[in-house]
Amino acid sequence: MTKYVYSFNEGNKDMRNLLGGKGANLAEMTSIGLPVPRGFIVTTEACNKYYEDNKQINPDVESQIFEKLVELEAITGKKMGDINNPLLVSVRSGSRASMPGMMDTVLNLGLTDEVAKGFAEASSNPRFIYDSYRRFIQMFADVVKGYPKASFERLIDQFKEEKGVELDIELTAEDMYQITMKFKNLYLEIAGEPFPQDPKVQLIEAVTAVFGSWNNDRAIFYRRMNDIPSSWGTAVNIQEMVYGNLGNTSGTGVAFTRNPATGENKLYGEYLINAQGEDVVAGIRTPQPISTLADVMPDVYNQFADIAKKLENHYKDMQDMEFTIENGKLFMLQTRNGKRTAQAALKIAVDLVNEGMISKEEALLKVEAKQLDQLLHPAFDGESLRNAKIITKGLAASPGAGTGKIYFTAEEATAAKKRGEQCLLVRLETSPEDIEGMNAANGILTLRGGMTSHAAVVARGMGRCCVSGCSDLIIDEEAKTLSTKDGLVFNEGDYMSLDGTTGNVYGEQIKTVEPEISGEFGTFMSWADEVRTLRVRTNADTPRDAIQARKFGAEGIGLCRTEHMFFEESRIFNFRKMIVADSVEAREKALADILPSQRDDFEKLFTAMEGDPVVIRYLDPPLHEFLPHTDDEIKTLANDLGLSFEALKTRVDSLKEFNPMMGHRGCRLAVTYPEIAKMQTRAVIEAAINVNKQGMKIEPEIMIPLVGELKELQFVKNVVVETADAVIKENGVNLKYHVGTMIEIPRAALLADKIALEAEFFSFGTNDLTQMTFGFSRDDAGKFLEHYYDKNIFEFDPFAKIDQNGVGQLIQMAAEKGRQARPDIHLGICGEHGGEASSVEFCHKIGLDYVSCSPFRVPLARLAAAQAKVKENLK
Ligand code: ADP
Ligand code: MG
Ligand code: MG
Fold first, then answer.
1. What is this structure's pTM?
2. In sequence order, which residues have a C-beta less than 8 Å from that of residue 853 and are 6 or more positions away?
3. Nearest residue CA, atom 1 of ligand 1?
4. Could you tell me what percentage of the chain is helix, strand and coil, using 3-state DSSP and rounding each to the nearest 5?
5. Which of 181, 196, 566, 818 could bridge across to 756 with cysteines, CB 3.0–4.6 Å?
6. pLDDT, tens digit, for every residue of 158-170?
7. Using N-to-C axis directions, what is the helix angle for 199-213 and 44-52, rounded to 10°?
8. What is the pLDDT of residues 222-279, one digit of tens each?
9. Which ligand has its closest atom nearest to the C-alpha of 539?
């Protein structure tokens, strides 16, 4: 029989696939002798079985749970349902990867009317009992049954208002009893049946609910954002309760072994006296900084600080811990590798190496490649910041600067982003339902909650700036206004700005600027560069982008899209003239006018790259993209060109295509109009000759796009070579240049061995290759792919991350065929995927020479390439 349930002392930290992260670490902490309330874990396999069996708990699973429950009763000396000494448990989810706030926890399970009554007498602390019971009813209703949490909260708020008290801790035992009764009635009203009075029924229902929550919308969205497969499932932890709400010598808190925002090596966290569970994170009361615990309960503080060090040494990483103090006794409830900002991640990784705790290679795995993005994000422009007025200050919860129009719900922020607006999300406090809106916003502002609040934790993970706990502001959700104490009022859609590094809030739009990188970043990236074998180039069309990318460590240009050079106001005229030309002579004349600026662009680009390789892709998009569309625009252009409106309109219409992305574009343009390729070749070669005269050593790499057939490539290549050789001869110099192609049409991948006969290099254009392999348009797919994610058909966007099974197979095959035909063929990719970590790892694995990505993703690609190599070395 499969073992579905493990006691904490039967597991360890390496069993996270089976026991989930939380369970594996609870087991590990138990085994290294830390004070952990005892319990057991229902495995992720049991969860998967639940889904296989059409959402039924397997009888084996159920009986194994009850066996372990008997063991737990024996160990604790308590009994479920016993009225004098009842065993109460928490039911906690825990998947392999930590999914903060995505799965819900039920506390104080096992309380019933009878148990509460007896226990209240036996413990002579009725306030605590009914505080626990009302919490349990609310959590059970919310998490297990999915009833609206707000209706329970409203009851408490009403009650407090009637009593004239502000805080939960001001409520008496009798108050708690009354609230419990009100909750029970409300439960009965909503459920149509009384609150369950059999602890075992409560337990199985709770376990089932945790399994169920694996597939709630929030969980699915979070998994998609973080590349977590739905097949992993969640484990369920069932653990003896310890009570932080017993009175003033009890409490609960969360802490990090190092500062998760800056990386500073100092215990960092918050706690609340006489509180339970999520109180700290939910921002119900404002928690105390952990350092003050040293005064309040010095022994507990010292013990906790020791445990923190021990855990950090044990896991060799910064830990995020949850603890509870019951009557002056410390219990550890969770530990995990802490989420951190990119800044903190770098500092911690470098510090841990310097402290001798880990190797450089291990350090490289401690920073998530995609997190580096955060370091490269905008900060406020100093000048416009100087004139800006701070209207209030909150906690600096997640660094960076954000500016935009304010919205008060996640939906509105998401909609604003879709309209193309820059927006900020303003909430009393955020909850997991807000995650999509948080992602859409440039920054998040909350009125309640500390540094470990949901908003703070999630924002840091996303790299969004966040200011939390801005308690001086007043929000009116009905009227959609935000006001300050001095009477400033901001309406939905008004501009504000947030500084997540200082906590400052501004009531206006402030210009943002790109950041400078230095310090630990340089050290860390140099370690990455020492290790990696995959080169990193950039996609850049302008000297400005090229210079930016070189600062970020790009080792060449993998893709210069020449068409982008023509969009400028001053140039588009000649370009349009070329497009609408109706004879070779007219086109050649227009091209001759374009040549000087194109040559000049290449000279500047070569100069900016200081001799590093540059791949120039010839004209690619359908021509009509450059043409005017409305009659007014056509009239103006006709006028400028000295053509009649009708003549131009006919020409524009003749260029229209039903399916332009599969139309007259790429090398097909050069087949029909070889003179375009001639002009581009002349520009490239003359530019190279000119800069080489200044002492540079450029060997331009000319790339023919959208090839699907050897003869097609041969034709265009002949044009290139004839022109290039003629230009070189004219100038009486020596110049090496290379001609290669993009592999972006599946047919080219299939015939790669043929194509390699003419191509000195391949660059996989994974955007088009993905589009053509799947057969869906990259411009439209977003609309229906949403349904594919919702229905679990796709788990990720194949335009963001290489589809290794399908598209990846084509790439790998083409790479192999290419190398067979031409052993020294140079291979790279230049799609968006070149800047996505798992795709970079894939490119490393199949032995490509380089990836090329947009400038801001170059550091990410460098790190991802290094991580791929480290992982390979570990095997
Ligand atoms: P999350 O994954 O959302 O952090 P947890 O399962 O860690 O949820 O539970 C949330 C909080 O509930 C914990 O931080 C802890 O304060 C409290 N809690 C969970 N289990 C127990 C327990 N056995 N005794 C006391 N408090 C508990
Ligand atoms: Mg937790
Ligand atoms: Mg393409």
1. 0.79
2. 536, 537, 538, 539, 558, 832, 834, 835, 860, 861
3. 101
4. 50, 15, 35
5. 818
6. 999 999 988 888 8
7. 80
8. 888 778 888 999 999 999 999 999 999 999 999 999 999 889 999 999 999 999 987 7
9. 3
